[in-house]
Amino acid sequence: VVEVNNPGNLLAILAFVVWVPIALVGARRWHPAVAASYLLIGGTLLLPETVWFKPPALPYFAKVELIVLWTTIGLLLFHLDRFRSLRLGRGPLIAIAAMCIGAVLTIFTNGDPVLVGSALLPAHVPYDIVHHLVGLGLRVVIPFIIGVTMFRGPKELRILFSSLATAALLYTVFQLIELRFSPQLHNWIYGAHQHSFDQTIRGSGFRPMAFMTHGLALAMFTLVGTMAATALYKIKGRVWRFRAGRVALYLAFILLVSKSIAAGIYMVLALFAILFLSPKNQTRCAVALAIVFLSYPMIRSSGILPVDDILGFVDSNLGEEKFSSLNTRFSNEEELLARAEERALFGWGTYCRSCKFDYWSGKMESTLDGDWIITLGIHGFVGFYAKFGLLLLPVFLCWRRIKRLPLGPDARLLAALSLMVGFSTIDLLPNGNYNCLVYFLSGALYGCLLGTLRQLDKLRQRR
Question: Is 42 or 261 the better-scoring residue by pLDDT?
């Protein structure tokens, strides 16, 4: 018997039921890159967040897992030839192998229950390996592989950018509604709020969520769409029937009025890089972001980060509310990092064993925000560098090999895509990873880069 959790209405269940034939028919009728883009992006933007299914002897299947599962089934049924010709290369294979082996060792090194005052956290059993591997596969590995297999060159690269910009443009209808009437669409249509309503209030206005997990997730997707439209403007492309430059300006305006400070800062930096820097320098910026992310645990544990200076600047320029929020994040990071270092290699596993609990009441005191510290606490440094190494490997590869491409549309789009992955990854320091799109984009960067280079080499050989 499948256990179902649905705090909303019947439509929330029907949406997932209807999604199955949509995924299969779409995978059959559309070009592979179009199918992958439409299904992964469309499912992320439209399906409800509050529903999950628990099949017997399997982990929970929520929105992300179900989107990836049925997209993969559809693509395997109708585009199997693409998977058969998959060549990941040594780097991604090592990262995936390390991730899987690390997950297995996480379970075997956490076979002891954890007692913190009155809180008893259960031990892991060997069967938990299935849960860990299925979760990592559906949220990390498979989206990356879909990106690699379905996106193989300049044609697919343009499909991806057009899909991102068009989806962001269409989704602004929902954002405008919620900016005016408050974030209620998920509640109106699916019968339940997907997140705390208090976190949507920003001053005298609101930060929209539409049908995504959180307003921050929507802000980052709007950022990616704005970057895609800006890159299309640089190569004189169009978004649907509109000029790409006008779409980029409109999306930038929507992002600013959505009151997400971090995404707004990312946008200013990203658009400056896309508009005024060469593709080579754009990839250098993306690599700089990747290095900052990968070295952040060491920076935090060594005390190099000037926390007091950052807090003083925020208090002076952004107000007491932002100061309090950032101070709480830094304090929480220090506590969770100290806890993670107790089992640094393979982590504590799940059941919130890496969290801090009050000794007397047994209540959890930790707030799990950044995806980096969540991953480090659960999987340790082995899992951290395997998971994010897979994510950021295409960024380093693009930086190394983009000089082989002539300065033109292909180089500009690849550089912009590396920036998308870089800024999406750096946002995982303060925030969680709400969906699988960043791994999908990383896989698409890897596939398009290698495919474009192969096409260029063939063209040179013919000449």
Answer: 42
